[in-house]
Amino acid sequence: MESNDIKYVEIVSYLFPDSCKVNNGECGSHADCDHDKTTNLVKCTCKTGYMNTGSSYNVTCTDSCDVNNGGCDVNAICSHSTNTYAVKCICKEGFTNTGSESNVMCTDTCHVNNGGCDSNATCSHDTTNNAIVCTCMTGYTNTGSGSHVVCEDTCTINNGGCDDHAICSHESKTNAVKCDCKKGYTNTGSASNVVCTDACQVNNGGCNENAVCSHKSSTNAVKCICKTGYTKSGCSCNAICTDSCQVDNGGCEINAICSHDSETYEVKCT
């Protein structure tokens, strides 16, 4: 009796083999075939990296990356792990993962520590590949090299391009470089191209025609000194030089005649 039972089981096993061993139970190449524990019916389960886009009775396994980008962030690229084929989300160029390895959240890199740019630079994106571009703000110059942008105050580099006799500073509103001639110099160029010339060489520094233009030793400000034979009168900051003989008779006696030496132009009383 026992031998007959064994023979019967062998015949049944031969006639009705495990469905999963025949064409993978019709589950398809991207699914694992198994049996329901209750009914023993074939059960198809999509492999890692694939998603069922059919139904529970008609399992269709589609690459997860082809379904809603694999659940990745809209700014991420969906791919697969080489070892497990599990979905792997990688942020696109110009975006940084501010989530975790298992929950990738892609944020504009410019919004994360200014994209790694210098604190005096503006972070933006290349229009071709969306890569980070660091551009120095107005009033700053890039002293770095290649893609490493280092922004320094333009005034600290070759005096900001200003004339040697100019002071480099910045506009209060735009921070653009501003060149102002130093004391004792006058701009003979333009507002955009400042050329600083010794003020004494421009209209005698504003001094009277009978004065010599020079500079104060302490501040280099213009100083007007009356030529020999002339006396300063009026406001000291804009001296008007008058013939000395016309001021208190040049210092001569009341009954003397004030004149000038023909060679030195010094006052002569006769």
TrEMBL record:
Recorded GO CC terms: membrane
Domain of life: Eukaryota
Chief location bin: membrane
Keywords attached to this entry: Disulfide bond, EGF-like domain, Glycoprotein, Membrane
Disulfide cysteine pairs (residue numbers): C207-C224, C226-C235
Any coiled-coil regions, as ranges: none
Location of the EGF-like domain: 197-236
Signal peptide stretch: none
PANTHER family recorded: INTEGRIN BETA-LIKE PROTEIN E (PTHR24038:SF11), STABILIN (PTHR24038)
Name the record gives this protein: EGF-like domain-containing protein
Species of origin: Adineta steineri
